[in-house]
Structures are given as C-alpha cells and as structure tokens.
What we know:
By secondary structure, the protein is of the alpha/beta class.
Amino acid sequence: MKNDFKDLIVFIGPPGAGKGSLSQLCTSQFGWMQLSTGFLCRKHIAEQTPIGKQIDFSMKSGKLVDDALIVQMVEEWLVAHASEYHGIILDGFPRTVTQAQALAALLSKKVPFCRLNVVRLTACDTTIVERLASRFVCENKDCQKVYSVADGALQPHKMGKCDDCSSSLVRRSDDHFIRIMDIQ
Ligand SMILES: [Zn+2]
C-alpha cells in the first residue's frame, strides 16, 4: 500500500538536548519544513492579517497570545501547505495542554493525511550544561540558527557570524546563567 502520510514532527526534551540542531539537520538533509510559530506570528503581524492584528494587540498589551489564535494560525498554515512537504517540524507548538488537545482535534478533522511523531531527546546533565555553555544563536529572529563553539560540526564558518544570513551570533539570554564549575 502506498504511504501518503505527511509527517508532523515534534521534538521534546530539555534545553540543550539537541532539538534545534536536529531540526536544522532534518531541514537541510531531508528538505523538511520547520514551522516556527514565532515566525508565523511575526509574518501575520507584518502582513496585518486579522490574526496578526489580534496577536499584535495582545503583545502590545503585555498579554499572552491566546491559545485559540495560535491554533487557528497553525491550522490555516497546515491546511494550506502541509501537502507540500514530506516532513514538517513543529517549532514552538504545541506549548500548552490546550494547544496539544487542539492539535489532536486538528489532525483528525482538518488534516487527516498528517500523522504526528513525537520524538523525545534526552542527554545527561553534564552534556546539557556543556552544550548550553558553548551555545550561540543567530540574532536574526527569522533565522535563529544554533551554533556551538565546542562542537566542530556546529561551528560557524566565520567567527561570530551566521553562515546562512551573516547576522551576528549571540548568547541566548537564558544561557547566560550557565557557567561550568568543576567541583572536586
Ligand atoms: Zn542567521
């Protein structure tokens, strides 16, 4: 039987488990799409769509963007584009239980040709701390490519600059709290 399913992929795991690096590898090697809800939000805001206006209003009032809006945005995208890719990595979604439940409903009702794959990544604490301490990300919000100064395969070609968009590489604000200390 021919397999016509499109795969939706969600990587879960602690920071530093390798979600970003693995996503980059899958998009470059398999031609998968990485669907970032942050990117979709900015796109809707820039294009001043009805969803974009509501998201913009929530953000400017300092409120969290409603789950229903995020779900509607992802649903519209999947209905319009899911058939174009073999694999779609959901990045930043689902982020709440409500969003996860909505995704389950969406899969059975709106995009029944998609199946969900949840991949859990694990790594030991020492590895995670080392990775976070050496992690740099592209400051361009629409790129956010991940680099490591400790891992040869993840080093940028030009120090401090993103290979893809030439933007500067920065530490993630939450990584600043990480420092490696050897305690004997
Ligand atoms: Zn970049």
